[in-house]
Write a structure and sequence with these properties.
8 helices; alpha+beta; three-stranded antiparallel beta sheet; 2 domains
C-alpha cells in the first residue's frame, strides 16, 4: 500500500473518530439542555418558590367561641365513648379550626377547605420534600426539592379501620388539570400517612364511627353513637 493511500485512510479514520466525538458531545448537550428545559418547565408549571398565603377565617368572634366550645365538648365525649350529637362543620368553621386549633397545627400552613355539596375541595400548599415522601416514584421529584406544590384539589375523606384517611381525587395547578396519567399514580396514596401533614389529627379522630360529606358540611359521628340512638334504644 502506498504512503499516500495510508495517510488517506488514517485521515478518514481520524475524521471518523472526530465525528463520533462531536456526535457524543452534541448528544450530551441535547440531553443536558433537553433535561434542563424539562426541569425548568416543571419548575414553572407545577411548583412555586414560596407557599400560598391563605386568607384568615371569616368567623365572627362569637361564632368562633361557640364553635371551639362545641368542638371541645364533642372531642371530650368521643374520647370516652359517650354518645354525643354529630358535629357538623361548614367551610368557615372547618377552616377556623385548621387555622386556630392545636390538633390541626400541621395543616395550618398547608390546607384550606371548601365544602361544596357532597365534595371536599380546597387549596393545598405542600413542600415538595413532603410530596416526595408520599409519592417517591414520581419522575424527577428529587430535582424539585425546596419548592412548593400549590394546587386546587378535590379530596376523598374516609375511615378505614377507624383511621381517618385522605386521598386526592382531582387536582389542578395554575388553572390546568393535572394529566390523568399522573393522577392515576397518586390517587391511591393516603395523604395522612405522612405525620408532617396529619400530625395529631388521625390520633385525635381515631374514635370516629363515620365521616360524612353532605349539604356543604363535614359531619363527624363518634364511635359511641349519637344521643338520638341512645334514646331510641331505651324505648
Amino acid at each position: 500500500m502506498s504512503e499516500k493511500k495510508t495517510r488517506s485512510k488514517l485521515g478518514c479514520l481520524a475524521m471518523g473518530c472526530f465525528g463520533v466525538i462531536i456526535a457524543v458531545i452534541a448528544g450530551g448537550l441535547i440531553l443536558y439542555f433537553g433535561t434542563k428545559y424539562a426541569l425548568d418547565f416543571a419548575l414553572d408549571k407545577y411548583t412555586d418558590d414560596r407557599p400560598t398565603a391563605f386568607a384568615k377565617s371569616n368567623l365572627s368572634v362569637d361564632d368562633a367561641v361557640k364553635l371551639e366550645s362545641e368542638f371541645e365538648k364533642f372531642r371530650t365525649r368521643v374520647d370516652v365513648d359517650l354518645p354525643t350529637k354529630p358535629l357538623e362543620l361548614d367551610t368557615d368553621q372547618m377552616n377556623h379550626l385548621i387555622e386556630t386549633d392545636a390538633k390541626f397545627s400541621t395543616l395550618k400552613d398547608k390546607v384550606r377547605l371548601k365544602i361544596v355539596k357532597n365534595e371536599v375541595r380546597g387549596n393545598i400548599s405542600i413542600p415538595i420534600d413532603i410530596v416526595r415522601q408520599i409519592y417517591p416514584d414520581l419522575p424527577q421529584i428529587n430535582m424539585l426539592s425546596g419548592r412548593y406544590l400549590n394546587a386546587n384539589v378535590t379530596v376523598n375523606l374516609r375511615l378505614e379501620g377507624g383511621q381517618l384517611e385522605a386521598y386526592l381525587k382531582q387536582m389542578s395547578i395554575k388553572g390546568d388539570a393535572v394529566p390523568e396519567n399522573m393522577m392515576a399514580r397518586i390517587r391511591d396514596r393516603d395523604l395522612f400517612k405522612d405525620d408532617r401533614i396529619s400530625g395529631q389529627l388521625t390520633q385525635q379522630f381515631k374514635k370516629l364511627r363515620d365521616v360524612k360529606i353532605e349539604n356543604g358540611k363535614i359531619i363527624l359521628v363518634g364511635s359511641g353513637g349519637t344521643v338520638e340512638e341512645l334514646m331510641n334504644n331505651r324505648k
